[in-house]
Amino acid sequence: MISLTFLTADGTRIDTEARPGVSLMEAARNASVPGILAECGGACSCSTCHVYVEPGFAGLLPPASEGELDLLDFVCEPDPERSRLSCQITLTEALSGLTVTVPERQG
Amino acid sequence: MRPIAIVGAGQAGSALAAKLRALGHDGPIKLIGAEPVPPYQRPPLSKKYLLGELERDRLYLRPETFYAENGIELITGTRVAALEAAEKVLLLKDGTRLACAAIALCTGADPIRLPPALGGALGGVYTMRNLADAEAMAPEFREGARVLIVGGGYIGLEAAAVAASKGLRVTLVEMAPRILARVACTETASWFRALHESHDVKIREGTGLSELRGSQGRVSHARLSDGTEIAVDFVIVGIGVRPGTELAEAAGLTIDNGIRTDAFGATSAPGIFAAGDCASFPHQGCRIRLESVPNAIDQAEAVAAAMLGQGVPYVARPWFWSDQYDVKLQIAGLNSGHDTVVVRPGDRPGSQSHWYFAGPKLLALDAMNDPRAYMTGKRLIEAGLSPERNALADPAIPLKSLPLSEPVEAL
Q1: CB B41 to CB A43 under 8 A?
Q2: pLDDT tens digits for B383-405?
Q3: What Pfam families is this protein classified in (chain A) (predicted)?
Q4: Region for B167 from its dihedrals, namely left if φ exceeds 0, alpha if ψ lies in -120 to 50, beta otherwise
């Protein structure tokens, strides 16, 4: 299992675990993390699963696709260094310990 | 204490239950679904799930433990036989009589089936709506199998894309003069026709299905309206859905292209609400019913608030998506009433967007592999702003600096 930490906008820390192969968005949904809406269910169509990845982990993630970058350009308060769509991050053992911050607002 | 009962455990029902709790409701909640599984996502059924790229538990909207953990009694595999509106009582198929504090009808929509007289009851004839539908047809997706898809809407086209991707021989018939006739402009239809033809899908427009024939109870041939007959191994019928109004109608609730609700989701019967694909509601001076996941979620959450006396009028912000092959289609707005379509080439090969206008007013857009155009258009539509049409058609003018034909307001 891969251990994950979500920091929500109000400062709550949610520690959870997920199996390899699922997306970070699914892990958030399974842990009922507030603020990750994922309206399209992970089709990279809506940008409502935006998270900020802690800097130490950014380098471990595969780079964002053009489609993901396009959507990230339109999220609330994008951060070019840290913003990702959580539905586009497939979890692997190498990501164990991953910590992400949920933005105050999606959309 | 009487519970709040939610009839229908799909996207809307599950969102409504979760929102009631999130808003602080601490009374009992019963979420009653006809299917034998917890609430799940439907869109992947015709895409990744059918391709075998998604395990079943990843379809579930929430882990199975979520409901009990949140004090939501999830009752699956149970149909509601009748609603006694005045008493707010539900009669379940097993004879249980459930007296409720309030009821939300989230009964979704049911696919229109081919009548048995036309061969609709033969084996090998499928619709695409439920998990059970997808699981029943999945074994048919063998390389080289001949599939006939009846209906050239988004469901039919998505099924065609999956079938063609798996090496099936695909014929799609559409009775109307063109595919997507009800939902998209000629330009979008032409774009998708070319896409499917490049994957060897045979699209026959202006051609209806006259009859399916079979032997030993299993479909083998289709006779088409132009008189031709083709051999088929199986058939997918994608000719639209009907809102799930039976329960409401039998109970005497007002039906108007779905269960009629006001802007708070209240039906004509006090204490009974409706949300999702089954509900029609006021929208910009008209009455609409939307068949989409985002609407099911947003409307259900709005109705949850209304059921707790915290409601504000629901304002729909319609958007839709469809995945076919490597193409992502995103749609914002509603195009009904448009008189012009502006075509804007995208920044990359294969990306394009079609913008629907009524006079100078932007109504909607279809964006193919062009999320930047989609996001730009969606925000303009939601803000009530319209880009100047000539500028929009010029790809040299960046999306972010399109001149507006309405007074400029902050986005």
Answers
A1: no
A2: 999 999 999 999 999 999 999 98
A3: Fer2
A4: left
